[in-house]
Write a structure and sequence with these properties.
The structure is a single chain. By secondary structure, the chain is α/β, with parallel strands linked by helices. Helix content is 47%, strand content 12%. The protein has 10 helices and 6 strands. It has a 6-stranded parallel beta sheet, sandwiched between helices. Helix 1 packs across helix 4. The longest helix is centred in the middle third of the chain and has 17 residues.
Length: 214
């Protein structure tokens, strides 16, 4: 794929940094610490569902003596400690980002996560060195399955939505790219394995390392 005439739009978690596990592993770790036996099927549930859903399940089904908001806050502090420990990019993403920067390809970080987590990773890995713009979906005002957010990004560079190449690990985002006629590069991630066949069927390129693009 020729990237030099494109805008490269990257997700953050699971795409350029290995951070999804901080969210998905902490429910089982917390329950185990309390001596709880993980119910059949719940390991898979915790692995593939967002933490807010897992927190509700934990409180409601494991007889925890803690409120949902308090458990969320407790686990989020653990997640933040994980983010602060990140010291490298995922799968040599920095090599590919350096290549794009050298060739003057615009790069945008576009994440459904909160700005606080971008700031942590930026402080650790200097995201600002590679990305022309960094947005959260909350800041831009549209979810990742909505066309308008990508149109805003494209217009920032005087281009059209069809000029975007989307780099993602999740199926729903790759599916959106397919619907919106954007090219997509899917990045393998342990916490998206339940939809990997669907991802491979809809993306333009599937990679386990960014070296595959160089």
């Amino acid at each position: 794929m020729n990237f030099e005439s494109k805008i490269c739009v990257f997700d953050m978690d699971g795409t350029i940094v290995d951070t999804v596990g901080f969210w998905r592993r902490c429910p089982e770790r917390y329950l185990t610490k309390l001596g709880k036996t993980i119910k059949a099927g719940d390991r898979e549930y915790f692995k593939y569902n967002v933490l807010r859903d897992s927190v509700s399940k934990m409180v409601n089904e494991y007889s925890l003596d803690i409120s949902i908001p308090d458990l969320w806050s407790l686990l989020e502090e653990e997640v933040k400690r994980g983010y602060n420990s990140v010291s490298s990019y995922k799968a040599d993403a920095d090599l590919f980002l350096s290549y794009l920067k050298k060739n003057n390809v615009p790069c945008v970080l576009y994440t459904a996560n909160e700005r606080e987590y971008i700031n942590i990773i930026d402080n650790n890995l200097n995201l600002s060195n590679y990305f022309n713009l960094m947005y959260t979906t909350a800041e831009i005002g549209f979810k990742k399955d909505e066309r308008e957010g990508f149109e805003l990004i494209a217009r920032s560079f005087g281009k059209n939505i069809e000029d975007i190449v989307l780099f993602e690990d999740s199926y729903y985002a790759i599916h959106t790219a397919s619907i919106l006629n954007m090219k997509s590069v899917a990045v393998a991630d342990e916490f998206a394995e339940n939809r990997v066949d669907d991802v491979k069927n809809e993306c333009d390129i599937f990679i386990s390392s960014y070296r595959q693009l160089l």
